[in-house]
């Protein structure tokens, strides 16, 4: 009996011990899993800390480089400031006569600048007037062939080139009736420009010419220019003080005289429209 009791007690102890061990194992397994999770989280946090540390180190290096650059700029400005102060100190000891000389130089520079601006303004006004003149002339003349009449601006001067065949018969200096119509249209525009001067130039080709009245091409070109000036003055009322007649003969060609087309281009009359020079001389005298 006693033996049975001992065996029963021993079995109960073994059974209880087995149950306790399984419960403890499960608890430890759960704890192990939790520890693994915590370990992974700590590892992730450590990695983030390392990344932040590297980023902070990079930013720190950039800031240090920027600080060094700013220090260099400050040093450069400080050196220039010292140099400027020294220059001011040296200027402060100039004599009164030197100061007066500097003042006169500055005043002279100012007056010259105003003079230049005045000339530029006058030139701009002249350019604008030339543009209006060319537009008005082309509008007045209409659709004539460019080979017969050409209006252009060159070096600030308006030129009207009229072909010889429009104005004169071959070897003659009497203006044709057709030419008078063209000249009347040109005169209509020119009369509205009292501040201008007009030079009428006769031009010929290089074919020798002579008759009972004229001795050469130069003589012919002068006669033709004079004939046109008289018509502008007498028939269309342009002030003769604004008109000048000049003969160029064959000596200022615009094309090669070796071809018929070149000779035709050279046989022309040119009316040059110029601003009266005395207004520019007055501007020079004021300065």
Give a summary of the structure in a few sentences:
This protein has 287 residues and is an alpha+beta fold.
List its traits.
287 residues, alpha+beta, 60s Ribosomal Protein L30, Chain: A, five-stranded mixed beta sheet, 13% strand, elongated
What report would you give on this structure?
There is one protein chain. The chain is an alpha+beta fold. It folds into two domains: about 1-95; about 130-285, OmpA-like domain (60s Ribosomal Protein L30, Chain: A, 2-Layer Sandwich), CATH 3.30.1330. It contains seven helices and five strands. The protein has helices at about 1-90, 95-140, 165, 175-190, 215-235, 260-265, 275-285, and strands at about 150-155, 155-165, 195-205, 245-250, 270-275. The chain has a five-stranded mixed β-sheet. The longest helix is centred in the first third of the chain and has 90 residues, at about 1-90. The chain is elongated. The mean pLDDT is about 75.
Q: Which CATH architecture of the largest domain?
A: 2-Layer Sandwich
Largest sheet: 5 strands, mixed
- SS class: alpha+beta
Number of helices: 7
Q: Number of domains in the coordinates?
A: 2
Averaged pLDDT: 75
Strand element count: 5
Rg from alpha-carbon coordinates: 52 Å
Give unreliable regions as ranges.
Answer: none
Strand order in the largest sheet: 1-2-5-3-4
- How far the N terminus sits from the C terminus, by CA atoms, comes to 150 Å
Strand content: 5-15%
Topology at a glance:
Elements: H1 2-91, H2 96-141, E1 149-154, E2 157-163, H3 164-167, H4 177-190, E3 196-203, H5 217-234, E4 243-249, H6 260-266, E5 268-275, H7 277-286
Parallel strand pairs: 3-4
Antiparallel strand pairs: 1-2, 2-5, 3-5
Helix pairs in contact: 2-4
